[in-house]
Design a protein that fits this description.
The chain has nine helices and no strands. The protein is mainly alpha-helical and 206 residues long. Among the domains are: 30-93, Diphtheria Toxin Repressor, domain 2, CATH 1.10.60.30; 110-187, Diphtheria Toxin Repressor, domain 2 (Orthogonal Bundle). The radius of gyration is 31 Å and the shape is elongated. Pfam families: DarP (PF04751). This is Dual-action ribosomal maturation protein DarP.
């Protein structure tokens, strides 16, 4: 009996990835492009994190250095090139902790913004009506009622004086800012107070 001719074609080694199936499983060029664009977008958000939060992340030294260099760069073209470089470095970086840090920062910023808007709303309502003061004192019984009413009266007086003098830019004096600080502190769960020294740097409501 004649034996069948032996097939001398090289057989794929175990674990050889260059097979039709493995090639089909590889991401397409468009998928790789989308992934790169996504990583660059993530890199942009990473550059917007406060340095104190970036310092807490376990980042490769190369990526940390690139972020520092990006912050030092002022030219548009230079920053664009650095962002591309950061995107490339992100390929070999665990992106999950970075996404978590960015999400936490955005959530905190959103909550802070809502709190500021609520404080502004309360202030405007108190300046417009004594009923708002009563509602506030019902809700925040620990508030120094005498201090609160004094700030409201003073802020109203400043506004009327500025309007009478046709100086609308002078409507918001010190009492207006101090009132905001008192309201914001109470909403945050702190002891409501609005001393002059504490309110000195308050411009975040403007």
């Amino acid at each position: 009996m004649r034996r069948a001719p032996r097939d001398n074609a090289p057989q794929p080694e175990p674990g050889d990835d260059d097979t039709p199936l493995s090639r089909a499983e590889r991401p397409s060029k468009s998928a790789l492009k989308r992934q790169m664009h996504d990583l660059q977008s993530l890199g942009v958000e990473l550059t917007q994190l406060p340095e104190s939060r970036v310092a807490k992340l376990d980042l490769p030294d190369a990526l940390r250095d690139a972020l520092a260099e990006f912050r030092r760069t002022r030219s548009h073209e230079g920053r664009r090139r650095h962002l591309q470089f950061i995107g490339k470095l992100m390929r070999n970086t665990d992106e999950a902790p970075i996404r978590e840090a960015i999400a936490a920062f955005k959530l905190g910023s959103a909550k802070e913004t809502l709190a500021l808007h609520e404080a502004e709303r309360w202030r405007e309502e108190m300046l417009a009506s004594d009923d708002a003061i009563t509602r506030w004192l019902d809700r925040f019984a620990d508030t120094d009622a005498q201090q609160l009413r004094s700030l409201v009266r003073s802020a109203r007086k400043d506004a009327k004086t500025a309007d009478a003098a046709a100086q609308p830019d002078q409507r918001h004096g010190r009492s207006y800012r101090d009132l905001f600080q008192l309201i914001k502190a109470a909403l945050a769960g702190d002891a409501p107070s609005a001393t002059g020294d504490d309110a000195e740097g308050e411009d975040d409501d403007e």
